[in-house]
Amino acid sequence: MLPALVRKTWRDDRRALAGWAAGVAAFTVIYTSFYRRFQGAAEMKQDALPKGMLDFLGIADMLSAAGYLQATVFSLIGPLLLLMCAITLTARTIARPEEDGGMELLLVNPVSRRAFAGQRLAATGTAVTAVAAVPWVLLMVIVPAVGMQIPLSRVSAAAFGLVALVWCFTGIAFLVGAATGGRGMVLAVTGAIALATYLANAVSGMAGAWGWLRWLSPFHYFIGTDPLHTGWHPAELLVLVAAGAATTVAGVVLFDRRDIGV
Question: The whole model's pTM is what?
Answer without folding.
Answer: 0.89
